[in-house]
Amino acid sequence: MDTFYSLIYYRPNVMTDELLALGLLAGGGEGPFLYISKRRTNLLKKTIHPQTFTALQRRIKSLKKTVDDYRIEHTDLMLFDPHYSREKLEALHSESSGAIVYSKTVSINQWLDASQFNELIYQFFGDREITSKKKRPVFQLRWKAFYQSKHCDSWERNVLLSNICDVDLPMRLDLYRADSKAIVKGLNFDLKSATVKRRIYEIQLLAESLPDHDIYVVHPSPRKDIGKSLLKSMKHTVPHIVTKKFSSFRDNS
User: Fold this and answer.
1) Count of Cβ atoms closer than 10 Å to residue 42 Cβ
2) Treating both helix axes as pointing N-terminal to C-terminal, what angle do 225-237 and 193-209 enclose, rounded to 10 degrees?
3) What is residue 201's three-state secondary structure?
4) Residue 216's pLDDT is what?
5) What is the pLDDT of residues 47-92, one digit of tens each?
6) End-to-end CA gap in the chain
7) Contacts from 161-170 at CB under 8 Å and sequence distance 24+?
8) pLDDT for res 102
């Protein structure tokens, strides 16, 4: 999948070509992502009329809400039918007028995730986005540490699906064996319901794309009722995959 970005500028005076870069909007990969520089908006606040700045804040807040709402409400389709497609950003660029201007889109020859987006933020604005530290679920840490350890040396790790078949799905396989046509993905069913549903949808598309492969989903035993229900639902939706408890997979790898 193509990944790309567009810089968001503010034009203080419509009679001049002067522009101030305020933010960055990127799509594709795990996007869309949006960043607005507080440092630059605070600088702008000191130079334009208060009512004009208030109007700008409303537009920025509206854009951020649109991006955030889409990520929350459409997690099952976000990766495969991105709301902020290249065509949409190109249209925003072409229609730019007045105070807000979107630059022409630029392709990124890398997988777009939060880490890559934060690197773009630093390159353009010299900022490091401050995010609250969230305690990651224990399974995610244990699973990643396990499949990257010597126990899984006979597997290829973190393989892009597009590298093994002609399918345009932006997905990484935790473990892959070409000789036995085996794929392993880890999944914690106690994560947020929307996140788990997106993962299940990805696994379903994976199974449909590679019907001749054995697909294993490694998971911890769900503790929550919703997690148990989602596991049961996945087994019904994608019946030909194999689910394995992490303890069982670890002991038999």
Assistant:
1) 9
2) 20
3) helix
4) 96
5) 899 999 998 899 888 888 877 776 655 444 333 344 455 566 666 6
6) 32
7) 161/206, 161/209, 165/209, 165/210, 167/209, 167/210, 168/1, 169/1, 169/79, 169/80, 169/202, 169/205, 169/206, 169/209, 170/1, 170/28, 170/29, 170/30, 170/79, 170/80, 170/111
8) 86
Instruction: Name the 3-class secondary structure at 183.
Output: strand
Q: Which helix (H) or strand (E) holds 177?
A: strand 172-177
The amino acid at residue 230 is L
Pairing state of beta strands 214-219 and 182-186? parallel
Say which residue the tokens 């389709």 belong to: 77
Residue entry with tokens 């699973």 = 143
The helix, strand and coil proportions of the chain, stated in percent and rounded to the nearest 5, come to 40, 20, 40
| DSSP letter for each residue of 41-98 | HHHHHTTS-HHHHHHHHHHHHHHHHHHHHHHHHTTTTTTTS-SS-HHHHHHHHHH-BT
- The yes-or-no verdict on residue 198 having pLDDT over 60 is yes
With b for 16 or more beta-carbon neighbours within 10 A and e for fewer, the 159-179 pattern comes to bebeebeeeebbbebbbbeee
- Cα dist from 130 to 112, 133, 136, 201, whole Å: 19, 9, 17, 31
- Ranked by mean pLDDT, which of 67-76, 172-181, 234-243 comes out on top? 172-181
User: Looking at residues 2-20, what average pLDDT do you find?
Assistant: 84
The full length of the chain comes to 253
